[in-house]
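Interim report, section 4.2 (structural modelling).
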Amino acid sequence: MSHWIIAPVILPALVGAAIMLFMRNDLLLQRVFSLASTLALTAIAAALLWAATLHPPEVYFLGNWPAPFGIVLVLDRLSALMVMLTALLAVAIQLYAIGSDWDARGRHFHALFQFQLMGISGAFLTGDAFNLFVFFEVLLIASYGLMIHGGGKDRLRAGVQYVAFNLVGSSLFLFALATIYAVTGTLNIADLAVKAQTLPEGDDALFRVAAVMLMLVFAVKGALVPLQFWLPATYANAPGPVAALFAVMTKIGAYAAIRFGVMVIPPSTPATGTLIADLMMPAAIATLIIGAIGVLGASTLGRLAAFAAIASMGTAFIAISAFTPAATAAALYYIVHSTLAGAALFLIADLVADRRAHDRLDQALPPIQNSGLIAGLFMASAIATAGMPPLSGFFGKLLVMDALRDQAALVWSVILITSLVVILGFARAGSTLFWKAHAAAPLEGPRHEPQGLAFTATFGLLAGLVALTVFAGPVMAWMEATALSLHDPAAYIAANQLPQVK
Amino acid sequence: MELLVASALGLLTSAGVYLMLRQRTFPVIVGLTLLSYAVNVFIFTAGRLTVNLPPIIDKYANGYTDPLPQALVLTAIVISFGMTAVLVMMALGAYLEAGHDKVDMNDTDETPKGGAK
Amino acid sequence: MSLALIAALPFIGALLPGLMIRAGKNACAFVTGSVTALALLLLGLNAPAVLRGEVVQTRIDWLPSLGLNANFFLDGLGLLFAGLILGIGLLIIIYARFYLSKSDPMGQFYSYLLLFQGAMVGIVLSDNILLLLVFWELTSLSSFLLIGYWKHNPEGRQGARMALTVTGGGGLAMIAGMLILGNIVGSYDLTVILQNKELIQASDWYLPALILILLGAFTKSAQFPFHFWLPHAMAAPTPVSAYLHSATMVKAGLFLMARLWPVLAGTPEWFYIVATTGLITMVMAAKIALFKDDLKALLAFSTVSHLGLITMLLGFGTAEAATVAIFHIINHATFKAALFMSVGIIDHETHTRDLKRLGGLRTLMPITFAFATVAALSMAGIPPLNGFLSKELMLEEAYHTTWAGSAWLMPVLATIGAMFSVAYSFRFIAHAFLGPVRDDYPSKPHDPGFGLWAAPAFLALLVVIIGFMPMTSAAWLVNTAASATTGEPVQAYIKHWHGLGSPALWMSVAAVAAGLILLGAHKRLMALWNATPRPEAKAMFDGLIEPFAHLSRRLTDRLHDGALTRYIAIGILTIAATAYYGFSTGTHTPGTRALLDVHPVPALGWFALALATIAIVIFHRNRLLTLVLVGIIGLMISVGFAYFSAPDLALTQISVEVVTVILMLLALNFLPKQTPAESTDSRRALDMGVAGIAGLAIAGLSYALMTRDPAFAPIADYHIANSKPGGGGTNIVNVILVDFRGYDTFGEIIVLGIAAMVIYALTEALLRSGPANDRLVAWTPDLKRAGDRHPMMLVVATRLILPIALMVGVFIFLRGHNLPGGGFIAGLVVSIALVMQYMASGFAWAQIRQKVDYHALIACGVLIAAATGIGSWFGGLPFMTTGFDYFHIPPLEEFELATAAIFDLGVFLTVLGAVMLSLASLSRIALRAGETINVEPFDIDPSEGRSLDDLDPQEAR
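Predicted structure of the assembly:
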């Protein structure tokens, strides 16, 4: 058994603690170590992805206790993919934070950032339901810190709301886990997947309650209507790079929904049946609609990006709620795409807001510096987000639509019409920001240093989208294999070496 | 006895939720605290109720209560303690920045937000 | 490969102009031109094969799982369009070089142009309808950039948005249509689809697919009722109008209809939708064109009209009609592009396009007059020019077509359309060039340099050549293209004279005559036109979009207005409702577990708890009282834990309770002490309802759970069995915490550490100069202060307690593994002991007297915990594998050492550090708010009897 599986959790934790202990007053050292750690994490994630692609799922028995009694980490294609995505995103965002001096506008940015990465990796890698909760909390509390990084009235008030709403979510998570344990007597995910299939009929109702509550927790994370309310104010008021990092936070909800919805309680489960699918599909469609309308109606660029994120979650959850291998594969492709696209959009929004000293969309002035370049970036990310060709968003949409052809009438029309609304929203915002204000003279210089690194980071994310487009074929082949392994979790369960229940 | 515990749970939850729906940060925090109490008790009850069966290995003990939920509650208590502490400080900060402690941000002067980043 | 290269070239080339512009406009234009020329050359190399009737193909797998592949094929139709796109593109590039003014960023222009060109070529070469969609939407995007090229011009911006919305929207509809088409056939490859006419037309999905695809085509080709965007797109620079809106993009819709003609055409649905739309568009647009004074608007509507004409011909669904359509596509491209460029020249020279301000240019701009007139006459359909040839054939086809049983409707309307186009064409010539020379042109006009007129002149030449010898110059192309379109060998016989018997002859004679009459009566007609109210397309479009945008704004801001309390209420109701739905739709057999019987003492506890809970709801506005009640509730709960055999929980609950309440008290010091009564009764009732539902749900759920046994043996049995032998501890809970599930605890202490860090960072942010800081500095205590804030009794007592408390902490820590206790509780106990010192003599006073850095404490705790975990790697064991052994050193009795204890030490340190760092932050806020540091441990020193309050605060600070 290789210790590398736990490295994505331990490494950031150690670096975070070290930053706190030795260099909490030296920003330069923090930047160096933090960036180095993130790069190392990327390398490790790449190695894990490679291993997960070649070999069946691998289980890491913490404390050397057998499953399901101890806690296990599981490295399978899905968890490896998500960790990789997180690491890549983190590199870009950290470069941006350094380039834009965001990390200097408050204390402990890098330490919190590392702990944030630790929480996210831990959540993706764990094979234990309660441990998933613990790492949700780790990444949440780190995100609270990052969200209010730099302080300020609106940011703090929005932060209070963000925390309060998520505390409700966390409580719900605990209610769900307690119910699950009370009914099935286990917390190990693989064990749960086995027991869910052989549950005595009398326990159906309670188990269904647990399943619904659990999925609702992930719905809160994934900003699924009507639990999306926390997102716009949070993302719009968070520091640009932090909002960009949050692009992967919503995906954690999607990840967990796939992990449990597809692997543990698929529609074939006697106890739950299509319960989850029946609830998730309408919610997902509503999410897409609310998000699209929000993009058109957004009053600020930050909110526009936030609602674009909501819309993308809608699309992702539509694909997830079909619970077929093809749809799951499409969902995975779309999740990777929308993470990169969303992050890029938030970074660009920050570039714009930084140069205009405000990010309102109802006033065109002042025009921004190096507007040509930023306009180009904005256009690219808008195309990607709206799902227009030639970028991966278009493929993602086509894949989702193709996978849901049995519900064509409803799903297709919603996806296409909302796309038009989103395009309209971006066109209006773009022409206000970059065309309408063209005549006047820009503000006296950007408010922070000329942001070479920041642009590099943004380009990096867009380059990722291009790669995702060019290599769509091989990527999708990989995603399909992954989806199949999720829909038939035999290998995942076997890796846990569960004792034979008598 | 189970009925007593369940009803107490219900009461705690209701009180917590009601306070969470108030419009000032302080009651909201208190509400969340009560809710976390309720959660902790709920997890505890997931191990079913037993009397005089502490989970301490002892050769004279005639059986043990389910220890796992207790461990989970301990973790939950600690985490919710950290969360509460952060929320309290953020509420204080928001109050000092804004000059009032309303939780809702839908006052006319504040939507739509944005403004300086 | 070569085909893919043709499509790719412009895209790759699009990078060059941006760079070459540094080397000057000529270099920039030259590079751009040579890119296009190269693509044209590659196309030419494939032409012979195509003319021999072969089909050139290139297949590259891209996204096989979706059926989206980079497959290209070149047949007659593709050759014709690709030729037009690249050929005219080349001319436009030359023309634009001389048209654009110095201030215009030429590099951008050429880049956009090449992007657009690549997208167009991609459309006409695609052998995969999904790939075609990609290029299709790309044309919408690139044209958006081209139309909005003049950023400063609001018409440009609006026109661009309108074009994008309409054509992009149509494109989205087309996506659905194409997916349906592909699903019917089972392949997205055109070459396959074109083989499956019967299959497609037999399918129930034929009509939806047809309509959706036509939506795409009609919007792109500006067919009624989607025609309105085209005139507004004329805000673009003239080269763009000439290229996009006459020769290429607007023809994309026609191309698509021609491309899918073999499988979609021939049904009544096709005839009535396509032919009718085309007919209406042709007549309506031609009429409007007659009344436009802006030359570009005139040409725009004339373009719409001619597109309608071609659409109508395709709609007839006969091979002959399709052939004529192809022929007219060629002719229209030649004369209309020439005309746009001529208008550009006029605009360029006279600085106006308004016919009312023009006239008499014949003598001033003879060259322009020459080719513009040729092109205009061709547009009017005057023999022997090419426009005449295709118009004759069109009228011929119309004559033979019956519409809904009426044989005359088609021919009559077609003739009327022709009549209008004669009228506006002649008006163009008459009102722009003929008539007396005027002296009030905005600028003195004269013929431009060769560079500007070369391109239109060349096109006018083509008009003439095709006009005089159609069979030699055009028929071959028409034949290959038409054969490819209809899928059957076509031999076109194009001639000028069809004999006196031909109805078309008389129809066009009538058209010309009537047209001239109309022109004569133009003044009066114009007055009539201006008098009659008519729908303004832009107004209607805005009337559609703006309210929608406004509504979205309202809805979005209304829904997400920051009302957290509503968010939470909605959330809780959603949770309760869905959970109940899940429960009610499942089968539940009530539990059979033996219940515990009620004893008086716990019943009393329950009563206290219930009372305190109700009290808190009633008195929650008194915040201090609320905290006291919270304390009571916490106490009751910990008692409950103790009663129900959970000693560890009891200990933890009570110690956490203390710290939490202290923290909240300190924070409350700076918050209002009262919560104002703001909610209306109705709202309270509502909230009560939500709260009640939540309470019932949780109570019910927990009762249902407590009365049933788990479905399977809980994993805890294993923990009980292995706690001592495997974990080396008799306190199972503690063993679970530090061993079985030590990883959870690891995460948990990190949460605490982060919490402290967040609090610290937040404090830093608050103490920076800003509103928060100002408020603190100006802060005055709102409660009356006790004169003796640090009473001597308390000071003395806490001093005595400190060592004892520390001892207790150590004790609890050490026994944790076997008896209730452990690192966490120990940490809390010790921090409480310290906090007591602070309460006694003030935080800062005690602060000065101890030199531990809390950050370091936390970090060390985390590192120690992690190190313990990593330690096991060296034993080749997984993270956090614990080891333990028993030692016996006389005179001590046997004792145990477990690595878990080291881990627990990490926990201890983190907890201590976290709690203290939080309190430290709070005290810093207090200091900023004017709190003074005691110089003495207590305020009133009996020996001096002098209170700190007598001191000058500055001195004290």
